[in-house]
Amino acid sequence: MAAQDQDIKNAANTAKGAVNTAQTVKTAVKTVKLATTAAKAGAGPAGWLMLAAQFAPQISQLADRLKKIAAGIGAYLFYLLLKLALKIAGLLTGLAFGAVSGLPLLAVPVAGPFLYAGWTAYWGFRGWVDPLGTMHLATHPWEIFNKPLSWGKNAFNTVTGGPIEVGGGILNAGAGVVSAVGNAIAGVVTAAWNFGAGLAGGAFGVMSAGLNFVVGGLTIAGVPAGLVMIPVIGAPVAIVYFGWQAMTNTNVAFSSNQQDAVIGGTGDNEIYTISKTASDGHFENGELPQELTYTIKLTAKAELNNISAIDKIEVRRKDGISFTVNRDTNNNLIDPLCGGPPQLITAGSDWTCQFTIALDQLNNFKDSVITNTVTITAGRQGSAPVTDGAFSVTTVGKPPIGCPNGWPTDHGYISGGPEGSDIHKIESSQGWPAIDIAATGMTYTTFAGRVKTVVNDSWGGGFGTYVTIEADCDGKRFEALWSHMALDSIDPAIKVGAEVGVHQLIGEVDDTGESEGNHVHYAFNGLEMKEPYIPQNPKSDNCTSKETCDVEW
Amino acid sequence: MVIMASLTTTAQSFKKLAPILLFGLVIIILIGLIIYRFTSKPDEPPQTPIAPSVINQNPDQKQPRSFDFSGLQIPEFPKKLPVYTVSPYNITEAAAGTLASNLGFSGTPSSVKENTPDGRKFDWDQENLSLTVGQTRLEYHNNEYRSLSTLPTSGLSQDELKNSAITFFGKITLLGQDLALKKTEFQVVSGNNRLPVGNFEDAQIVEFSFDKQLSNIPLVDNYPGSGFARVRVTKDGEVIYLFSRYFDKFSESGSYNLKTTKEVQDEIAKGQGKIVQTEVLDEKGVPVNIYEHPESIDNAKIEKVSLAYFLPDNIKETIQPIFVAEGTFKKGSENGRVVIYLPAIKQDK
After folding, report:
1. Which of A415, A491, B97, B199 has the fewest CB atoms in 10 Å of its CB?
2. Same domain for A392 and A430?
3. In whole angstroms, how far apart are CA A502 and each of A312, A365, A456, A469, A498?
4. Is A83 domain-assigned?
């Protein structure tokens, strides 16, 4: 077994080499793309190359599809091989069983040899059905073609496409051919490796089956019938195990996508990644004054233009006061970041910005949470801009983490008080007194706690897309609810069971569920909906509008 | 003597022919076996185990203390049903743009969001109109009505409003033609919410929910009130909201034995179903709260059990049949309604 594993590893390494070659080809293709971009400075013969670069994304998509087709064919070929191996295993084990169990027939006068031959042939043809009924090894040979396994079918379904798909057209096809060739080569290599890996796995399985057959044949005389099943089950298990292992291992090798961890949230999308790290995650009050250095790194996956960056550093103190930090230690404005990002970043390149702020006055930063959020908007030629963000959190002393503190949105106003309608009242809401906060933009945690419920739904029992978070406030367990958020907007860090910090992004304010107008139905269970758990009480508890509630921030 | 000689000759002939006859007999038997083998159906393979659908119940919702099945008449259900896999469309920016232009939007998307739970999403935001097109869902808003001080309660008839909704659906070719009206709700705007009213006459907004069917069985998600598609229409026939899912195709992926009606009752009684909806209703049958908070239920009287297909949150999972048990409960002097989902596929032990 160890030798077989080694053989598989060797085969996998060889294939990885082939894939690396393919990657080299892809890199070369990227280089050609860069060259076309560079040709923008010129004109004439290079013009078509400029055009090609513009349509490369569409062709890249086409190439991805080709890659999937190739991978699907590879998977199907492996499947066929697996089935064939099972047939052979079934034939051999059936023959063995027939040959041994038919021995008494030889004692029949005259007809004995014929009966024996017929009996053996029948079992060879029939194959063997294991007594547990868990695995049907061999039936009709043509089942190999007419009854594909479900995953074999799925491999093809993934490349079927939909009727509304809009193709690129001849111009696109011609223009992006360079990219397509590169990706297609990679796809073919992947498929070939999948097939090769399957073949190798299958071969090991067949070898194992043959061996088991011989062993089974030798030991069958005098051995209880049940033990005969060992080779019968062992062979296909070996085939499946080696084939699957080989394919799984290589697939992992091809698609493994590791990412370094950073402090805070990281943005990752199709055209860029954005990360933000803070030099420290926590200071004690006594350690102030201090300096805190932030590093922002924007990595382009595709050529980026029209780049803008907004940075915001917000400090929220335990006493309810919050403010923003606008200047760094050199007294430069933090926004625009490092004087503003470049107007163009080529694919694969980075832009890094670093600045330091001073936490120099104890009274300002005592028992506070410092949240730095960077928002990047960037586009690539021919498509709409993509906005993404990253954040980092640093705490000082004993920040306001246990009890709700602050508003769940950066801006907004109370549009409905805790007695403003029946649905807000504690007695008619199953103990969830609430206020409505009319706002746009994002909504954030107001305390540190554990995520209890995450629902991403357009209706969600009236709440739409919502989150509940639980924590202990002054020794008392409570929950808070943020609802009516935009579908699919919940931050990936907000998962059931996740520990969250103060002012951590939850999602985007919207009006999913039974909502009219963008607002957060903000509710507590186990706490009163009033100061100090919200910064300011509405003018009257039964207010129903901005004017009557009279609280805006 | 002649006869004896003849018999002897015959016997000797038979003796000579015997091996050939025996051989022929063996061949016939073999042929018979082969024919039998070819014509008989292979043994049905045993049911491949399948993980039951992941149905979520509010963590604060407790099971009823007891169940009452006395008024329940369960219809005959099929013994076996297929499960399905679903394939989404591949919505490109150009395709989303075509869809958007059919709904009155122009130009490129206002923004594109990558890697959302619904894949790549395209947003249009133009004056009072907004549209979000994902890979399996779209959401449309027309907020022009919000500029009115009050929404009228008079206008078109209920049938005319329904036709407005269906006509609007027709502009979205992705949605298909097989949606069936499931529920009609009458609502009024109150602050930041829409509240239900019991009749068409008092309503400012009418919401139509539509179901999709698989093998003539409705497809439901974790929220029975949700529907596969929903449209809101003001009384003047203006479509102000549309939400719908869409998928390229549903493919069968094996058939599975279903639980018997007795097993269904036993499992529900043991609290193995998932409570997915609880509502307290007023005397007109209208929910007293628009939000479905968990309810404490002493006794749930199960009145109806039906079959549905369950669309999981993660569409990479299979779409499996479930039993939908609907019942009532008492909360003080008020009546409540409870809906329970139970996976329908029998799990072989």
Report:
1. B199
2. no
3. 16, 15, 22, 11, 13
4. no
Residue of B nearest to A148 (CA): B253
* B82 in contact with chain A, both atoms CB, cutoff 8 A: no
A113 shares a domain with A236: yes
A436 and B192 within 8 Å at the Cβ level: the answer is: yes
**Domain enclosing residue A223, as ranges:** 95-248
Contacts of A158 in chain B (CB under 8 A): 87
Residues of A in contact with B132 (CB under 8 A): 487
Q: Pick the residue from chain A with its C-alpha nearest to B107.
A: A384
Nearest to B251 among A134, A157, A416 (CB): A157
Choose one of A341, A368, A396: the last residue of a domain. Answer: A396
Q: Of A12, A44, A75, which residue constitutes the final position of a domain? A: A75
Give the burial class of A117: count Cβ atoms within 10 A of its Cβ; 0-12 exposed, 13-18 middle, 19 or more buried: middle
Looking at the partner chain, which of A110, A432, A459 has a beta carbon nearest the beta carbon of B18? A110
Determine, yes or no, domain membership for A404. no
B89 min Cα distance to partner chain A (Å):
5
- Written as tens digits, the pLDDT of chain B (349 aa) is 566 676 677 667 767 777 777 788 888 888 888 777 666 665 666 667 888 989 999 999 999 999 999 988 888 899 999 999 999 999 999 999 999 999 999 999 999 998 899 999 999 999 899 999 999 999 999 999 998 888 999 999 999 999 999 999 889 888 877 888 989 999 999 888 899 998 999 999 999 999 999 989 999 999 988 889 999 999 999 999 999 999 999 999 999 999 999 999 999 999 999 999 999 998 888 888 889 989 999 999 999 999 999 999 889 999 999 999 999 999 888 899 999 999 999 987 6
Structure token pair of residue B109: 């998307």
Q: How far apart are CA A25 and CA B320, in angstroms?
A: 44
| A312 and A354, same domain (yes or no) | yes
Interface of B with A in 257-276 (CB under 8 A): none
Task: Number of A to B CB contacts under 8 A, please give it.
Answer: 192
Instruction: Tell me the whole-structure pTM to 2 decimals.
Output: 0.56
CATH number reported for the structural domain that contains residue A511 in this entry: 2.70.70.10
Chain A CB within 8 Å of residue B154 CB: no
User: In angstroms, how far is CA A371 from the centroid of its own chain?
Assistant: 26
B132 Ramachandran zone, left/alpha/beta (phi>0; psi -120 to 50)? beta
Amino acid at B5: A
Whether chain A has a CB inside 8 Å of the CB on B294: the answer is yes
3-class DSSP assignment, residue B83? strand
Beta carbons of A514 and B194 less than 8 Å apart? yes
Residues A375 and A434 placed together within one structural domain of the fold: no
> The complex's ipTM?
0.83
- Are A99 and A244 part of one and the same domain? yes
Nearest CA in chain A to B120: A270
Q: A49 and A38 in contact (C-beta within 8 Å)?
A: no
- Searching chain B, which residue's CA lies closest to the CA of residue A154? B85
CA B271-B275-B281 angle, to 5 degrees, is 125
φ/ψ of A276, rounded to 5, equals: -135, 130
Is A38 a domain residue?
Answer: yes
In chain A, the number of structural domains is 4
